[in-house]
Write a structure and sequence with these properties.
The protein is of the alpha/beta class and about 350 residues long. It contains 10 helices and 16 strands. The protein has an 11-stranded mixed sheet with strand order 1-8-2-3-7-4-6-5-9-10-11, with helices on both faces. The chain has a 5-stranded parallel sheet with strand order 14-13-15-12-16, with helices on both faces. Helix 1 (about 15-25) packs across helix 4 and helix 9 (about 295-305) runs parallel beside helix 10. The mean pLDDT is about 95. Bound molecules: threonylcarbamoyladenylate and magnesium ion. Threonylcarbamoyladenylate binds next to strand 5, strand 6 and strand 10.
Length: about 350
């Protein structure tokens, strides 16, 4: 399959390219699109064949449901059984933005889209290109992250080109994603409601609307292989470079001491750490500033992709704060490390 690259610099001047992408989507084709979190691999959410093609292109297990992207809260109505009051309060506060809400689905949502579950995940993205494409396509768009299954989520069109050239009909290049980690996924189908995947809309922010919301056990714990995950995506090893990845809770001095015992290991670290790590003769790959957790989210997946450029056998990752958006960063790193964590 030939993959078209459509670079969008301006919504009006590049309107023809937007129409071209929207037409492909209406025809049941696959188009990688930018969102404010990560790039998504979009297709018509109401077309079972289009949804099935997404799984095929990503090499994704077919029991892992897709997020359905809509343009406004009322577009949720035909896709779900009922819209509780709290749905509108969450929508008002956090949409458009990096939050996904799970509700009981209606018959309109094909089982191929919902991974065989009786629920559907909904999101209104904030990225102007994503919103424009949903409107122009005129259908809700199913879109998982636009990476090959298992590899880090794509935060630039270059990442999508690397993973999906020849596998999708088009890639829309809208520049770098601002947030850098995927949306917060929460379910309103449990009592109390639960966060299944942390993101930029944090636990603290959600508690202002839903005081009783909790983190699902699978967010930070390793589920047994045969356990039933609340969110199927959480049971898979994910985001993983080829190198062995180990998380290290420690200050920089102890971290450097540890590195000295492993001369051929690299480090995934904070900008503040680089001088000390390179002085000890190790490769330092930066994933943001220790003092700025948002920058860590923004850079994380690009940094994980870079690990393999250095052909390292193993990499130690220095971890510090796990609050706020730091919960999202830690959740992704745990999966990249297959839950290997040490504390010094
Ligand atoms: O920011 C994002 O959410 C990006 C952009 C493209 O919107 N999308 C994304 O999709 O990250 P994906 O498919 O890579 O991750 C969706 C996660 C998976 O872990 C999946 O198992 C979970 O959400 N999920 C989707 N529908 C669900 C449902 N009905 N019940 C439980 N978990 C669900
Ligand atoms: Mg994904």
């Amino acid at each position: 399959m030939k993959t078209q690259l459509l670079k969008i610099n301006h919504l009006v001047q590049d309107g023809q390219k937007l129409d071209q992408a929207a037409k492909l989507l209406r025809e049941g084709k696959l188009v990688a699109i930018p969102t404010e979190t990560v790039y998504g691999l979009a297709a018509n959410a109401l077309d079972p064949d289009a949804a099935a093609a997404i799984y095929q292109a990503k090499g994704r297990p077919s029991d892992n449901p897709l997020i359905v992207h809509i343009a406004q809260p009322k577009d949720a109505q035909p896709l779900v059984q009922a819209l509780p009051d709290v749905f509108f309060r969450l929508a008002q506060r956090f949409w458009p933005g990096p939050m996904t809400i799970i509700l009981k689905k209606s018959a309109q949502v094909p089982s191929a889209t919902s991974g065989g579950l009786d629920t559907v995940a909904l999101r209104i993205p904030a990225h102007p290109i994503a919103r424009e494409l949903i409107l122009r396509a005129g259908v809700p768009l199913a879109a998982p992250s636009a990476n090959l299954s298992g590899s880090p989520s794509p935060t630039s069109a270059t990442h999508c080109v690397h993973d999906l050239t020849g596998r999708v009909d088009a890639i829309v290049d809208g520049g770098e994603c601002e947030v850098g980690v995927e949306s917060t996924v929460l379910t309103l189908c449990t009592n109390p409601p639960k966060i299944l995947r942390p993101g930029a809309v944090t636990l603290e922010m959600l508690r202002e609307v839903l005081p009783d919301i909790e983190l699902d056990a699978g967010v930070f714990e390793h589920l047994a292989d045969d356990a039933k995950a609340a969110s199927p995506g959480m049971k898979y090893k994910h985001y993983a470079p080829k190198a062995r990845v180990v998380l290290v809770h420690s200050g920089i001095s102890k971290f450097v001491q540890l590195l000295k015992e492993y001369p051929d290991a690299g480090a995934l670290c904070f900008e503040e750490d680089v001088a000390q790590i390179t002085q000890s003769g190790h490769t330092a790959i930066v994933y943001g500033k220790e003092s700025d957790p948002k920058s860590q989210a923004h850079m994380l997946f690009g940094a994980l992709r870079r690990v393999d450029d250095f052909a390292l056998a193993q990499v130690f990752v220095r971890i510090s704060d796990e609050n706020g958006i730091g919960q999202a960063v830690y959740n992704r790193l745990l999966r990249a490390a297959g839950f290997e964590v040490i504390r010094l």
